[in-house]
Amino acid sequence: MKVEFAPLNIPLARRLQTVAVLQWVLSFLLLAQVLIGLIVILIIYNYWFLYIPYLTWLYFDWSTPEQGGRRYNWVRSWTVWKYFKDYFPIHLIKTCDLDPRHNYVFGFHPHGILVVGAFGNFCTNYSNFKKLFPGFTEYLHVLPVWFRCPLFREYLMSTGAVSVSKKSVSHVLSKEGGGNISVIVLGGAEESLDANPGNFTLFIRERKGFVKLALTHGAHLVPLYSFGENELFKQVHNPEGSWLRTAQKKLQKIVGFTLPLFHARGIFQYNFGLMPYRKCINTVVGCPIPVDKTLHPTPEQIDELHQTYLKELRKLFEEHKGKYGIPEDKTLIFK
């Protein structure tokens, strides 16, 4: 195989974009482990004056990710996020106005490998979210396991991310007067194992907890589809029934998440590496599905609203797929 190297005369802006994405990928893959290792080293060498105050504070702060988190605008405004967004680039597209007197649940699809579109649009101040949806505060819900990692949890919360637990989503959606948006990546880790270029499979048929929470709090549902999310990486072949898929599913059951064996391009060559491809991400926000507050929804009410959500999600995909280069014969597959 002939190796295709990056040209030497790359503009400075593109070099900075590459560095920004590289640090994000490495932070996702390694930062939590490094920071846990740092805490262990401090304990082993008995730097008690460093780890005891932090662990004491951590004990009292443990529930913060389920109580709206602790975002810092100065972190969300780091220049590195601008270059991160421009690398792909990432765009947020609005199709309908939202009423800030209501709370909303944004269902984000697809999961992809690293949920790049969700982070770029809802965890930085360089997307046009505030311009498109004035009067709203967005909360990206991620796996609770990340908030059990010392120090890393502080970094993650500073971007505006919160836990995806029921308690956390309920906290966001219970705001009086509206104006909050829960962004939930509904496919989860299971869907990430099918995140391949040209794949449009969504694991959504059995995921109804978000519908129940929307009914309980009277939060309107909004489907989102992030065109290009699955085009950023390739995966080691892992069809259903293969030893690799079986191992990945077992890992998910044990620790609550799994990590696809992905690859894309390198820093100085385009053939292999962990850097995502430069593929445009267009996150299209659909129209809201009105939801009446129902404190104790029946299974029938949940199923009915769930079917309505699937219908609107498919409609959103069909209406916009042609704009983003998806062939007419491609459609969503719900599992």
Overall pLDDT confidence: 94
Shape: globular
Amino- and carboxy-terminal Cα gap? 37 Å
Our estimate of the beta-strand percent is 5-15%
Can you tell me the residue ranges where pLDDT is under 50 for at least 5 consecutive residues? none
Number of separate helices: 12
Largest sheet: 7 strands, mixed
Count the strands? Answer: 11
Structure class:
alpha/beta
Strand order of the largest sheet: 1-10-7-2-5-3-4
Q: What order do the helices and strands follow? A: HHHHEEHHEHEHEHEHEEHEEHE
Radius of gyration: 20 Å
The amount of helix comes to 40-55%
Give a quick set of tags describing it:
alpha/beta; 11 strands; seven-stranded mixed β-sheet; two-stranded parallel sheet; 14% strand; globular; 335 residues
Written description of the protein model:
The protein is an alpha/beta fold. It is 40% helix and 14% strand. The chain has twelve helices and eleven strands. It has a seven-stranded mixed beta sheet with strand order 1-10-7-2-5-3-4, with helices on both faces. Strands 6-11 form a two-stranded parallel sheet. Helix 1 crosses helix 4 (79-87) and helix 8 (166-173) runs parallel beside helix 10. The longest helix is centred in the N-terminal third of the chain and has 33 residues, at 12-44.
In summary, what is this structure?
By secondary structure, the chain is of the alpha/beta class. It contains twelve helices and eleven strands.
Task: Present the secondary structure layout.
Blueprint lengths: L11 H33 L3 H14 L11 H4 L2 H9 L2 E5 L9 E6 L6 H7 L6 H4 L4 E6 L9 H7 L2 E3 L2 H8 L6 E6 L2 H5 L8 E2 L6 H9 L2 E8 L6 E2 L7 H13 L6 E2 L17 E5 L13 H22 L12 E2 L1
Parallel strand pairs: 1-10, 2-5, 2-7, 3-4, 3-5, 6-11
Antiparallel strand pairs: 7-10, 8-9
Helix pairs in contact: 1-4, 8-10
